[in-house]
Amino acid sequence: MTGLMCPGMGKFKSSATGKGYVGEIMVHKVSGEAGVVENVIESQSGWAPQITLKLKDGSSKKGKLSDFKEATAEQKRSFPIPDVDETAGLTT
């Protein structure tokens, strides 16, 4: 019953394929910078999934999923919550 969700549970994420990581707050292990996952290239033919992390300053970090880790509760709280318009792609 993999992939089923019950009400109240978080969204389903798969580290094997990279599915479900878009919009998550993660931390680049080397630099320690937190950001929001903007894009995921799913794993193919034995290659690890790759993600693009958009940082607070607007720059991006790209790398394998293993180059990043889940953000702590403290890091998630310090990260700005996107406006509804931004998440819908309606920025001006």
How would you describe the overall organization of this protein?
The chain has a domain at 14-75: Roll (SH3 type barrels). It has two helices and five strands; from the N terminus they run βββββαα. By secondary structure, it is mostly beta strands. Residues 1-6 have low confidence and may be disordered. It has a five-stranded antiparallel beta sheet with strand order 4-3-2-1-5, with no helix packed on it. The longest helix has 6 residues, at 73-78.
In short:
The protein is mainly beta and 92 residues long. The protein has helices spanning 73-78, 84-87, and strands at residues 25-28, 34-41, 50-55, 60-64, 68-70.
Summary keywords:
92 residues, mainly beta, SH3 type barrels, 5-stranded antiparallel beta sheet, disordered N terminus
Count of DSSP-assigned helices: 2
Biggest β-sheet, characterized?
Answer: 5 strands, antiparallel
> At the first level of CATH, what is the class of the domain at 14-75?
Mainly Beta
Low-confidence stretches: 1-6
Distance between the first and last residues' Cα: 42 Å
Radius of gyration using CA atoms only? 14 Å
